[in-house]
Specification:
CATH topology of the largest domain: Rossmann fold
Shape: globular
Structural class: alpha/beta
CATH class of the largest domain: Alpha Beta
Radius of gyration: 18 Å
Number of domains: 2
CATH architecture of the largest domain: 3-Layer(aba) Sandwich
Strand order of the largest sheet: 3-2-1-4-5-6
Distance between the termini: 12 Å
Strand content: 5-15%
Number of strands: 6
Order of helices and strands: EHHHHHEHEHEHEE
Length: 228
């Protein structure tokens, strides 16, 4: 079936895993305590969400900070943590301390598909706000005009087939008309179970045993034959 939209993961797919884990996460962690302390009033909703998620209704600001740091160290996908990280990153992108990393071949591929009229979407465990920040502040400039929409775990877990059915419904296409790109086989399994077409990005170590089509870069994914 003709592919009529592409949904891409970020970490390990369009962007380096090292950028997320070695740049973004440490940047947020180093600034989290001061940021929450200085902005406790405007973060009231997020701090309440921390208490709710931790099941600690009496948690004060200091306790919430400790909980947030613990979640970050455990790489937990907790909504208030993701929101606060995104706010910290927003400051870093705004003052030039952070530059979003996107592989050159991913930029070229996205530009090619966008020029062909193919709608592009992002689905990542990072918040939609964080996704937009990364793509808006790359060395190649603002890439966000190429995207038709963004999805995060508010639609469901990335290893749950129902999440991909929800995404297809929101895009307004049958799942079979959507191509999902990721470097994680379990995510591809979920997308495939939902009916999507899938491709595994194996940039560093090509996986010859994969049950799914494999690409080492965006250059070889639908280079010519896309019909929107």
């Amino acid at each position: 079936m003709t592919i009529r939209a592409i949904v891409t993961d970020i970490e390990g797919t369009t962007s380096s895993i090292a950028f997320v884990h070695d740049v973004l996460f440490p940047y947020a962690r180093a600034r989290l305590a001061a940021f929450v302390t200085d902005n406790a009033d405007r973060l009231a909703a997020e701090l309440q969400a921390v208490r709710d998620a931790a099941r600690e209704p009496a948690l004060d600001v200091r306790g919430a900070i400790e909980q947030l740091l613990e979640w970050q160290d455990e790489d937990r996908k907790i909504a208030p943590l993701k929101t606060i990280q995104g706010m910290i990153w927003a400051q870093g992108y705004a003052d030039g301390s952070l530059i979003g990393h996107v592989y050159p071949d991913a930029i070229t591929g996205l530009q090619r598909w966008h020029a062909q009229g193919l709608p592009l979407y992002v689905y990542s465990s990072g918040s939609v706000a964080a996704q937009k920040l990364l793509f808006a502040h790359t060395a190649a400039g603002d890439l966000t005009p190429m995207f038709s929409g963004y999805f995060d775990t508010a639609v469901g877990a990335k290893r749950d087939a129902a999440s991909y059915r929800t995404i297809a419904d929101r895009i307004g296409l049958s799942a079979a008309e959507v191509l999902f790109l990721s470097d994680i086989a379990e995510e591809l399994a979920a997308a495939s179970a939902a009916g999507m077409q899938v491709t595994l990005l194996a940039r560093d170590t090509p996986d010859e045993t994969s049950a799914y089509p494999v690409a080492t870069s965006f250059d070889t994914i639908l280079p010519e034959q896309v019909t929107a």
